[in-house]
Amino acid sequence: DTEVTQTPKHLVMGMTNKKSLKCEQHMGHRAMYWYKQKAKKPPELMFVYSYEKLSINESVPSRFSPECPNSSLLNLHLHALQPEDSALYLCASSQRLAGGTYEQYFGPGTRLTVT
Amino acid sequence: AQSVSQHNHHVILSEAASLELGCNYSYGGTVNLFWYVQYPGQHLQLLLKYFSGDPLVKGIKGFEAEFIKSKFSFNLRKPSVQWSDTAEYFCAVKGGNKLVFGAGTILRVKS
To answer: Is A43 close to B101, i.e. CB distance below 8 A?
Structure first.
């Protein structure tokens, strides 16, 4: 099974709402990633977790809060977002982060609209 | 930090035409190179990858890419495209622990 699943598929939220995006993989991967993809743009890295510890934070605003409760799950908590945060949020996983050559497997994404 | 440049943003081809999409990267160390494809309404899928060894790598669906170290290039090729190849293609470079994508090339194949 080489699948990364993400829920929800679509999310509309107001600027005062709190919501969470969820990502799950059962491939035994120990590195998980959040990317943001704006329309007609490539994915941009936001966060990387390695062995459930935050390894990379690409200077993402604090209104985005990642969480990795276990090796299969990755959450992205959203609070007080701005309309410009509307985008496709992609989750990915790889066997490891470093120490070898590991490809990333991507989920289908959550299409987020902030009103 | 690494960067990736894809030369064409939009490519339109007729079925059976040959395809070559350009990709150049900038990074001072050892790189891993990838081509990902995003079909309309679908998620990113890995087409092929280069880690080491033979610089000509073959991927899924008849795609191949050649790593030319001296030119910092990793161009994607397919001898004969099909309508179903209509998609967006991203070149990506992993240097260190980060994967950086190029801007993408939208390919439209006319039937």
So the answer is: yes
